[in-house]
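Figure 6 in text form: structure in, sequence out.
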């Protein structure tokens, strides 16, 4: 009798259509255009929902000074709200949310998540204690925990393989820019509330601006709940409930799948973790390292580093699509090979960091390293989509958030420890280089080692290998 791991390793997993969904047909040109329009509408809903979540998340950072003023919170308590309350609970809830999404329907769980974080945001506005606000941020974290895994799991349901990478890159780039947009929208709202108190109803006179802001950003919750709940599912959606014994095993057997394909998963997620360590180190510590090394004002660093990150993001999101298009013309270029190309380039600018002699040179290093890192990272969700059976897709993608959260926790600790061992004003620059360069090399080696097991896993689960002729 075959074991569960043998079954998953050697037999393709079936991917039947959703009960009640229209069967896939060749269709007419009108039907194809209609299906494409619905898919792009679905992606727009997912992007708007993500922007909504990012506004909520950024608002928690923006109201921190107000919480200290009105409620007397300490720096430690603010750190608990923004760190423990968000990161740890989001990490813990990510896989269960993915499991529920695979089991009961991704659209349903995403809509429930929207409802949870909207209610939790509304709840926060009426709290006067640390315990109450902490509970509210935990609710926001749990509601948002399944956002990225579920969205990336739904994109293959909406788009055929030839358009999926484009959709992934659009969503990835939108998420990166959405963080900045969320910060800008939240800041503009708080600034308006602070400068235009007379424009508010008399009933809100004397109410803290941060409370009004939290209520305001919670109000669109029902609208986004309805948009998600009614968005198209697509003709490639995995079943919400298994129809056969084989489907039931595929729907529940994550551990046998992981055991059978641990090489591919280990190399891919190991590369993501190593890349996240390096990229996080620069974002977190550059604002401290550059004033210390060059004696410049922190505000100046913010402008210069912000410009470098923006340029890097624009270039990094554009490069993967260009590389895949050129690769398709040349024959074939699987996303994992394109990701490896960009990741191998990432350590080169990082190697110059210990030798920079001006802030401009440091910004240039950050921009070049960031552009290559973003380009490689932007392809990772698509690679994971290829590795994951349809019935396990949300759970496998949930590991992406968990790995990134672990890297976010480990990187500051590593650099902070190493910088204490090095004397001088450039100690932080050296520490960033000591951590990031080996991490980037490890990420490149691991993604290169992943190619063969990746191809084996994709074929084993019955997927079309990206780059192969249909």
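Output sequence:
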């Amino acid at each position: 009798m075959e074991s569960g791991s043998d079954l998953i390793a050697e037999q393709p997993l079936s991917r039947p259509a959703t009960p009640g969904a229209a069967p896939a047909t060749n269709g007419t040109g009108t039907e194809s255009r209609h299906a494409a329009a619905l898919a792009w509408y679905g992606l727009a809903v997912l992007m708007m929902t993500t922007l909504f979540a990012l506004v909520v998340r950024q608002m928690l950072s923006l109201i921190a000074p107000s919480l200290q003023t009105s409620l007397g919170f300490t720096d430690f308590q603010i750190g608990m709200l923004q760190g423990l309350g968000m990161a740890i609970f989001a990490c813990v809830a990510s896989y269960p949310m993915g499991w529920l999404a695979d089991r009961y329907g991704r659209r349903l769980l995403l809509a429930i998540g929207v409802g949870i974080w909207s209610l939790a945001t509304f709840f926060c506005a009426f709290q006067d204690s640390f315990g109450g606000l902490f509970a509210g941020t935990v609710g926001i974290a749990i509601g948002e925990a399944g956002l990225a895994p579920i969205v990336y799991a739904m994109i293959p349901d909406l788009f055929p393989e030839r358009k999926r990478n484009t959709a992934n890159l659009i969503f990835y780039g939108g998420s990166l820019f959405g963080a900045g947009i969320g910060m800008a929208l939240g800041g503009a709202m708080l600034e308006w509330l602070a400068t235009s108190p007379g424009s508010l109803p008399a009933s809100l006179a004397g109410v803290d601006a941060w409370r009004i802001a939290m209520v305001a950003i919670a109000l669109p919750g029902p609208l986004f709940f309805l948009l998600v709940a009614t968005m198209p599912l697509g003709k490639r959606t995995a079943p919400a409930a298994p129809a056969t014994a084989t489907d039931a095993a595929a729907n529940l057997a994550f551990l046998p799948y992981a055991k059978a394909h641990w090489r591919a998963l280990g190399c891919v997620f190991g590369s993501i973790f190593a890349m996240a360590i390096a990229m996080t180190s620069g974002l977190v510590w550059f604002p401290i390292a550059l004033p210390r090394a060059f004696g410049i004002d922190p505000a100046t660093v913010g402008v210069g580093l912000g410009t470098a990150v923006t340029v890097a993001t624009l270039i990094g999101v554009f490069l993967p699509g260009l590389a895949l298009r050129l690769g398709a013309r040349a024959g074939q270029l699987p996303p994992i090979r394109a990701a490896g190309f960009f990741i191998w380039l990432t350590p080169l600018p990082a190697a110059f960091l210990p030798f920079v002699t001006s802030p401009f040179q440091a910004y240039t290093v950050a921009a070049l390293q960031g552009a290559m890192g973003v380009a490689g990272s932007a392809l990772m969700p698509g690679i994971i989509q290829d590795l994951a059976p349809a019935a396990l897709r949300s759970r496998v993608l949930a590991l992406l958030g968990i790995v990134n959260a672990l890297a976010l926790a480990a990187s500051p600790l590593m650099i902070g420890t190493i910088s204490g061992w090095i004397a001088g004003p450039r100690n932080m620059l050296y520490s960033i280089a000591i951590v990031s360069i080996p991490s980037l090399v490890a990420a490149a080696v691991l993604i290169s080692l992943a190619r063969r097991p990746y191809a084996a896993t994709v074929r084993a689960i019955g997927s079309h290998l990206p780059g192969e002729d249909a």
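Caption detail: The chain is about 80% helix and 0% strand.
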